């Protein structure tokens, strides 16, 4: 199982990777640096070399800054309320490894460490750049970051909106008779199926018909009768006999062994 910290961090990293706004901002800044040639690069490098240099510089520094910025955003989520503040802390911490990374890149292009002869000096120079990077990134993507970092409440669907699986027995009926099941009754070697759209005799044992009811709520009230809960109106006693009165007015007898179950289920109707 992936730890929640790593899972959340990966989600936010994927947000950057998939965002066209992020890549547009990145490309625009690389182009501006390549054209303007800051930090003496316009004097020392031709445009093509300068473009490659700033592309590598920004790819490395942005990778470090994004990684630490997202890590700080996730780790400090329960301590600091504002997303920008969490990201800024991570970006400023990134200045130190970025300073050393800049030294390695400069050495690769020039063979020397130039005037900034240690990583700490480069880190100090990188601090305002890291802050600028954080502001640019937050401005371009704060809505997406907020959507990922804010857990969305899960609202359970109302029970009435969850459709029950259609009982298998309905597939045996003619299309015009396929409605909500009301009751089943034994008729010789047949089972009579009564729905809200009609009734039909099917050549099927009663026991097999009961197995094809699926999740339809109901009760077998007699060895020859089954009734659906939603179509029961009330119970009626006639002497020592008990009947289920259906909503269509039909009375279904309840056998003595099933009286207690019927009273428990429908007694308050």
UniProtKB/TrEMBL annotation:
The membrane-spanning stretches of this chain are: 20-39, 51-76, 88-113, 119-138
Instruction: Provide the organism lineage as a comma list.
Output: Bacteria, Pseudomonadati, Pseudomonadota, Alphaproteobacteria, Hyphomicrobiales
Task: State the UniProt keywords alphabetically.
Answer: DNA-binding, Membrane, Transmembrane, Transmembrane helix
One short Pfam name that applies is: LytTR
Species the sequence originates in: Neorhizobium petrolearium
Q: Describe the location of the HTH LytTR-type domain by residue ranges.
A: 168-268
Q: What is this protein called?
A: LytTR family DNA-binding domain-containing protein
Entry keyword Membrane = yes
Q: Which InterPro entries match?
A: LytTR_DNA-bd_dom
An example Gene Ontology molecular-function term: DNA binding
């Amino acid at each position: 199982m992936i730890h929640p910290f790593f899972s959340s961090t990966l989600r936010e990293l994927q947000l950057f990777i998939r965002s066209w706004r992020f890549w547009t901002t990145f490309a625009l800044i690389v182009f501006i640096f390549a054209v303007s040639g800051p930090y003496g690069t316009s004097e020392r490098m031709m445009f093509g070399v300068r473009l490659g240099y700033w592309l590598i510089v920004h790819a490395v520094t942005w990778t470090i800054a994004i990684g630490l910025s997202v890590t700080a955003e996730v780790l400090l989520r329960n301590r600091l309320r504002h997303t920008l503040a969490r990201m800024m802390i991570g970006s400023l911490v990134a200045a130190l490894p970025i300073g050393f990374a800049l030294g390695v890149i400069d050495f690769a292009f020039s063979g020397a460490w130039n005037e900034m002869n240690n990583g700490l000096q480069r880190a100090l120079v990188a601090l305002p750049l890291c802050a600028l990077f954080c502001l640019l990134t937050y401005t371009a993507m704060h809505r997406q970051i907020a959507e990922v970092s804010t857990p969305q409440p899960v609202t359970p669907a109302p029970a009435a909106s969850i459709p029950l699986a259609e009982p298998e027995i309905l597939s045996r009926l003619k299309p015009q008779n396929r409605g909500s099941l009301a009751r089943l009754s034994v008729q010789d070697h047949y089972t009579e199926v009564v729905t809200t759209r009609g009734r039909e005799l099917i050549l099927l044992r009663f026991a097999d018909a009961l197995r094809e009811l699926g999740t339809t709520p109901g009760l077998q009230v007699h060895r020859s009768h089954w009734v659906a809960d939603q179509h029961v109106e009330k119970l009626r006693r006639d002497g020592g006999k008990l009947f289920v009165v259906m909503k269509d007015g039909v009375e279904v007898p309840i056998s003595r062994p099933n009286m207690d179950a019927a009273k428990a289920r429908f007694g308050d109707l």
